[in-house]
Amino acid sequence: MAMNAKTIPNEEMFYGHKACGGCGGSLTVRLAMKVLGKKSIGVYPPNCMSTVGFIYPHMCYFGNATTAPFAASGAVMSGLRAGADALGHEDWHVYCMAGDGGTADIGIQALSGAIDRNDRVIYICYDNEAYMNTGIQKSGLTPTGTRTTNTPAGSNIHGAIQPKKRIFEIVAAHGIPYAATASVGYPEDYLRKLEKAAACPGTSFIHVLAPCPTGWQAPSEITIELAKEAVDTGMWFLAEYENGQYHLNKNPKEFASIEAYLKKQGRFSHMVQADFDELAAQRDEQWGRMRAEWCD
Amino acid sequence: MNRPKMNPPQAGGKMKLPVGPNAPGGYLMDVSSGMRVFRPVIDQEKCVHCLRCFLVCPDGTIDKSGEQLEIDYDYCKGCGICAHECKVKAIEMIMEGDA
Predict the structure, then answer these.
(1) Is the residue at B49 inside a domain?
(2) For B79, which of A22, A125, A170, A270 could close a Cys bridge (C-beta 3.0–4.6 Å)?
(3) Among A212, A217, A182, A253, which Cα is nearest to A35's?
(4) Which has the closest alpha carbon to B26: A93, A124, A11, A92?
């Protein structure tokens, strides 16, 4: 059954949380829990979603959820999977909701280990492109030119100097059974990928772009618009990896204006034309490679 | 309205708090409405029930179980995503305190 707004359950399983208004990460969790249902165990390493969901004694998860050490979300998931199987709960899902730093920087070895063991777990990375929970520091998934508190924009250096890590390809290089990228700007696509991940017999990985109004310094109402524009401008891509094959879900003929997208966000407000051109060149290089190698 | 309510468990007139490393899930002690500056109001005449607002609400405060969509103002933070995403402009953001 195709999952869409009409078919997903009305019941909320992540409710009353204290995330900022317009939080993309909380939408990621909310939609994931609607697909996975109450028969699921969530692992939340330190990130905004564990901070806003577990404020003792205000507990916002209506299913099972636990916090994990930052570097151990993959290992904790493996343990919970083994425990659930030993108790005969083979039909339960074990998933984790890690941020971009918890996936690409701190948690990468535990993620790699979980994929290597091929445990039946779902690793969801919600990517807001910096360590937002601790006050907007640069992570491995922060794009070039982003102003964060430890990559300030001055007259010489304009924000972060490193490009975004290609974590989707790093994960796919493990030979994982199912990996995908998604965006909260295309929620139906994200729901479809969640369903696929839930049905996957081995480890699955979904990387979701989830804008953060606070860290991106953008108005709270344009969260979904930004996530959609990121895909339309080519700054983000929707792709899947299964059976050893990459597949681009959306291959726009023409990209929307990258400048209009960046100018909506305060974190790029320092940018000059050369910075826009650099990001556009990075995008074109990446898309050239993806179109050459990933398209049938 | 089919949404969880704030319901701090009581025992003998006193608030009962969980003890130990585990706590029951779905234990709401507080509302989020204090974060709100603008209040979304649905114009039921204009609404075509496409459920876009229900799908994209980060807080899940839009209830689709009834005939008409309802907003749980206890937990709505007034972020404005529903009004911005509504294709038929059936949701208006009204300043709290104004009529």
Answers:
(1) yes
(2) A22
(3) A182
(4) A11
User: What confidence tens digit (pLDDT) does each residue in B38-80 have?
Assistant: 999 999 999 999 999 999 999 999 999 999 999 999 999 999 9
Is the pLDDT score of A1 beyond 70? no
Look at residue A2 in the predicted model and tell me its pLDDT: 82
User: Considering CB atoms only, which of B55, B63, B75 is closest to A5?
Assistant: B55
| CA atoms of A253 and A249, how far apart (whole Å) | 13
Instruction: Please report the sign of the dihedral spanned by the C-alpha atoms of residue A112, residue A54, residue A8, residue B76.
Output: negative
What is the CATH classification number for the domain harbouring B81?
Answer: 3.30.70.20
Yes or no, beta carbons of A58 and B28 under 8 Å apart: yes
User: Rounded to whole angstroms, how far apart are CA atoms A149 and B82?
Assistant: 31
Q: Does domain A24-294 have CATH number 2.170.150.40?
A: no
The count of domains in chain B is 1
Distance CA A123, CA A39 (A): 16
Q: What is the ipTM of this complex?
A: 0.92
Which residues from B are below 8 Å from A6, CB to CB? 51
Q: Which domain holds residue B77?
A: 33-95
Is B66 inside a domain boundary?
A: yes
Residue B61 lies in a domain: yes
pLDDT over threshold 70, residue A136: yes
Alpha carbon separation from B45 to B48, B66, B68, B89, B95 (Å, rounded): 8, 15, 10, 11, 21
Residue B57 with chain A: CB contacts under 8 Å: 27
Q: How far is B46 from chain A (nearest CA, A)?
A: 19
B2 occurs within a structural domain: no
